[in-house]
Design a protein that fits this description.
The protein has 102 residues and is an all-alpha fold. It starts with a helix and ends in a 14-residue tail after the last helix.
Amino acid sequence: MGGRNEPNIINQNVRQASPLFGLLFLLGIALAGPSGILAWSEYNRTLAEQQVQLDKLKAERDVLKNRVGLLNPNNVDPDMAGELLRKDLNVVHPDEMVILLN
């Protein structure tokens, strides 16, 4: 009779311990998983880097918007047109000297 109760006790212990192991596993995932607490600092660093990049792109977009506005077909800015002719088509007068500032 003692042999028959031992497997029942082991089976009962396993049934009681399995939710604990499941909870510990979920806690480990919540702590060290790909979207866990330890990954937050990496996400914050990446977010800050991308925010800096976004700010640079917005500034570049604003510069391009300004240039597009100056090239409006109905009202072209003469300075912009002259700059583009000199830069892209190498059109200059013989008495002019072009200095490119990068």
